[in-house]
Write the structure tokens for this entry.
Amino acid sequence: MTMDATRQRFLMCRPTYFAVDYAINPWMDPTAPVDADLAIRQWEQLRQTYVDLGHEVELIDPVAGLPDMVFAANGGTVIDGKAMAVQFRDPQRADEAPAYRAWFEAAGFEMYDPKHVNEGEGDVLLAGDHLLAGTGFRTAHASHAQLQEVFGYPVITMQLVDPRFYHLDTALTVLDERTVAYLPEAFSPGSRAVLRRLFPDAIHATMADAEVLGLNAVSDGQHVVLPAQATDLAAKLRDRGYETIGIDLSELRKAGGGPKCCTLRLRQGKAVK
Ligand code: ARG
């Protein structure tokens, strides 16, 4: 099996103001210590990994008082040169939305505003010709219809059922046009059946891998950047011919985030080569 890496363009946000000051998911414990300097060093290693792989990394300025802004995947959904802004469920993150929106606008994307709660690529993943859209905890089911209208890809609703895997990108990772990896237990029976139908060759992750946010991974079609602790998943990926790169994001995980959460894919209308 030959794999071709596609050069990616990513948006990231330095965790300058990162902290765990509130709890909006089960990973977050505001009483537990967080090493803010280590968080920045770990994030820097992620950014450098992308650069070393030949990807382009754009940066948005972090905003003081928005400790979760490092999770750029939640800043929008960007496909074919169109950017859909976000609307957060929780008031603590609300002010991130206009900051990201302004960045997309300045970067020249065609802008669309969300009519319902929509947490961007945290819940909206392009897999081949389908948009997989999570709901159950954050992104509202009603927003799936708007995503289909804006982007013109068939949207497949994915019902999330485990509060630890509150965003789709904590339960499923897109590896290439045809392949995904996911944790079956994170989905409703109906969604599991849909996943089996769409992706009969999918990799099934173990609970142990998901519990270290192993599915919060970023693939360019050949290299998969994933949490270093997700060793079983990494072995399964290598069996399938992917090259795995483990990154330790222990501090950001205290907020419920991993590599994918820190990384928003910017998909231009034109091919970026
Ligand atoms: N603390 C953040 C929240 O709960 C983490 C977001 C993680 N992002 C992601 N794409 N899964 O909203």
